[in-house]
Amino acid sequence: MASNGFPPIFDGHNDTILSLTGKGFNPLPGGRSFFEETDNGHIDLPRAKRGGLGGGFFAVFIRPPEQEPDENDDAENAIDRTTRQFNPSGGWPEPMAMDYAQSKALELTGRLIRIADESNGACKVVHSAAEVEQCMKDGTFAILLHFEGTDQLDPDGFALDVFHKAGVQSVGLTHFRKNRYAEGVPMTFPSSPDTGEGLTEEGKELVRQCNARNILVDVSHITEKGFWDVANVTDAPIVATHSNAWEVANAPRNLTDKQLDAIKESRGIVGLNFHVGFLRNDGQVDTNTPLSVMADHLDYMVERMGIDCVALGSDYDGAIVPDDVSDSSKLPNLMKALQDRGYDNEALEKIANRNWVRVLRETWGS
């Protein structure tokens, strides 16, 4: 148990590395340190430790150069610009250049590796489920390297091999845009996730490449057609690292009952996304959103898929979250709300970390 009395949390998604560089949702000139507590962003090591966050998927997310944020923006302007680029009126722009994307991917991956290297053993880049499990036991902060988007990957798999050797263990096929492999869903409400095309032939081959290397494939952000293409190609559990239930909130980023059923059948997992626009049934981006709304999504997914297929995928440092979980130090508030809903210690342990460990072991083979 963490010092707060709840099991340590392994989280399915964050955009913290962008926040640390000063180019996240809360632009900060010069960025910030992972090892020092601030009131900027959602995750740093002191707040994580206080809130029982033991690690998670750290996303390498690359914006095209024309959409890089202005460090002089306040958070409201940054969010407004981001929302516009994720819901283009004239269709998706062309994919970004691969050489630019590879350069940024190298930088951000290197920054994450450096955090572990400079932590004096407090943090570790994890390569196996056994390492994640051990980190949850001994209090070492676990960093799982994840790609959110694949513009940096060539179709022959050479870059994938290099990044995998560097520690990238998880790949989300796209974000809120289109690339050579897949198409994302726009940030619209209300809407079905059936908003565009499925995987390209190169996208299907990328799924096979990931399967061959035991790399997790994340179906968050892709269209419903893309989801079913992944389901038909993959031989691994289907994973949505940070998504919610469409029947509870009709955002296209959320998953329909049929999608949830397919994830259950594959012994996969869904990580609850904390973004208020994906939680609320009115789609409003309002931080005055009670924890009961988050618990409603979890209840629905547990009832539909079973307790073994549900976890957390906060989207911290990349989302607008409820006030009661306004940063990682507040995670015990959510755990207490679930406990009050009737989730016993075993269920809380599964949601907090054990379900992720199981899926990672079945995907990675170790």
What does this structure look like?
By secondary structure, the protein is of the alpha/beta class. The chain has a single domain (9-364), classed as Alpha-Beta Barrel (TIM Barrel), CATH 3.20.20. The chain contains 13 helices and 9 strands. The protein has helices spanning 16-20, 45-51, 75-85, 98-117, 129-138, 158-166, 201-212, 224-233, 257-265, 276-279, 291-305, 331-340, 345-364, and strands at 9-14, 53-61, 123-125, 141-148, 168-172, 216-218, 239-240, 269-272, 310-312. The strands form 2 sheets. Strands 1, 2, 3, 4, 5 and 6 form a 6-stranded parallel β-sheet that branches. It has a 3-stranded parallel β-sheet with strand order 7-8-9. Helix 5 runs antiparallel to helix 13 (345-364) and helix 11 crosses helix 12. The radius of gyration is 18 Å and the shape is globular. The two termini are 24 Å apart.
Based on Cα principal axes, name the global outline.
Answer: globular
Proportion of helical residues: 25-40%
CATH superfamily: Metal-dependent hydrolases
Proper CATH architecture: Alpha-Beta Barrel
Quaternary state of this entry equals: single chain
Helices and strands, in N-to-C order? EHHEHHEHEHEHEHEHEHHEHH
Summed up, the helix count is 13
- Topology-level CATH name: TIM Barrel
Mean pLDDT score, rounded?
93
Domains (count) = 1
Q: How can the largest sheet be summarized?
A: 6 strands, parallel
Q: Count the E strands.
A: 9
The percent range for strand residues is 5-15%
Low-confidence stretches: none
Distance between the termini: 24 Å
Provide the CATH top-level class.
Alpha Beta
